[in-house]
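Hi R.,

As promised, here are both runs. First protein below:
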Amino acid sequence: MPAETNKQWVIRSFDNTFDCLETHEAPLPPVGENEVLVKIQAVSLNFRDASIPMNMYPFPSKSDLIPCSDGAGVVVQTGPKVKHFRSGDQVASLFLADHLFGDLNADAQKTGLGGFLDGCLQQYRVFNELSLVHAPRNLTPIEASTLPCAALTAWNGLYGLKPLRPGQTVLVQGTGGVSIFALQFAKAAGATVIATTSSPAKAQRLKELGADHVINYREDPNWGETARKLTRHGVDHVIEVGGPNTVQQSLKCVKMEGVISVIGYVGGITNGDERPPQILDTLTAAAIVRGIQIGSKEQMLEMVQAIEASDIKPVVDQRVFEFDQAREAYQYLWDQKHFGKVVIKVE
């Protein structure tokens, strides 16, 4: 049976500090006829989660926000009309609660957990059953909690527009969650992977995960041309997470008709004194530059099947935080001390 109260983390203000995260206890919400009560067991953090209290997130967020889109747990109660879940099922959340299939639209965009809607950094959460998926059978709750944002974004980047094919080349930037998942998905598909990093230690980890080539972007600021020389005609898919500081190099390495999936801005939202990327640069490169906001439930179900079929294990940082260490987890992510996904245990 669930507890009588629900301990939550709440962001009271967006004031450039993680001190604005506070704990709070609330009564358990009622479970509607099409809803499911989930005991959250683990939550993973994304750069987006840290950027919200730092007042850097480019989309609106509700006041008194329960943060974090990415949660995994076990079903403890179902409404009378729920068809696809039962008590004891292991589940993961859907980032955009109403993006079930097809193209993203403005209404579905406004159903992002941990931003427009309250998220998963709490002991229990009620979901509409359509906003959940069964967790992959080969993953623990800690591993499954990493899937809703980073993994699905990487999957969408590789398969959402021009599906990745064996023998093609993928470039991933850095060692954050999206990039690591893209590396794993690409290798499982028989692709060649070029990775960038600034750390020799992280370069070694990337090679251990299967990266065929690793470029240190601090030692080689013109890494885009270097990456291109490692291919025949250029890179087929670029997973672009850096923002303005890296797009120019991505345009240098991508092949004609290749795809640059713009996913994040971990390198900042300005690029110093360099000329900012221009829309006509896509014409010069003859490439597709595509912005991605996560993906649909349909895509997530396809991804779960692939994770099970290839026994893909998410890369979780060696430090897993306890529920009462949420502020420390946020700071750890913000300081970029992690390799792979930062996870908070809730149980």
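And here is the second one, sequence first, then its structure tokens:
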Amino acid sequence: MIERSVVVLAGGLSHERDVSLRSGRRLATALRDAGAEVRELDVDGSLVAQLRSDPPDAVAIALHGGEGENGSVQAVLELLGIPFVGTPARACRRAWDKPTAKAELAGAGLDTPDWVALPHTTFRALGAQAVLDAMVDRLGLPLMLKPDQGGSALGAQVVGERADLPAAMVSCLAYSDTVLAERFVRGTEVAVTVVDDGVLRALPPVEIDTRGGVYDYTARYTPGTVSFHCPARLDESVLARLEETAVAAHQLLGLRDVSRMDAVVDPDGRVQVLEVNVSPGLTETSLLPVAAHAAGMEVGELYAALVERAITRRCFT
């Protein structure tokens, strides 16, 4: 690539700060290997002044959670006129809110587990036990509980017994004021990365083998606790359907450059979309690097192409 000055944003103040710093370090190294001049910046009170005083050719965002995925940082970069890799601010907001994204996906005919999203105030006003009973009567057990916003499976857990629901709800509400409860789907858990470096396409689906456990925060970021298979050990027709679904979700939600769809293939072979992530992880245990490697690509090569694409967009706006 032509030598470009790139700022990698990582860190921030979300619950996922540590993961973001690890992603940022790996991305910065990969871009340097691809020939870029890279600065790594945290997201704090000095960021805008630093970007104004020494604007880069482009920004690559390695933020997870909070401002890095809900569109806040992207909106500031848009205000400053600095090109960046990733989804525009308004589409970030739409994808960040899981119930909103699920409603759009379902409305377009994509399968997603049945769900209900309820704020903490509803449980307090109407009586927690009565609401929980109605939830179980409607969705059944087991249930997957997760914060309506956030990533890295923080606060997410599978609940198989009615008696365990109150404690699980309290744990989930530690990360958000609203709980998303969805019907737990048994099957093969898969992640599909979508990239658009001039050609919109899905990378090979990655199968996540948790050896009977749950792909929670500990499993995601502890090396050796999970096995990955790429491409996933599924029929060719199912792999094709996974890729088609991931690209469709990317386009439907208005995402740009790179995204990752998390899904479960149920026993009938249907792709059940769980969520779509606008800032896929890049740590040593993350899924995007696994998919890129299977596609014969280096992460630095991929992001260098996305940096060029971001710069080109500025030239035509």
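A quick note on the second one: The first helix runs from residue 17 to 33. Let me know what you think.

Best,
J.
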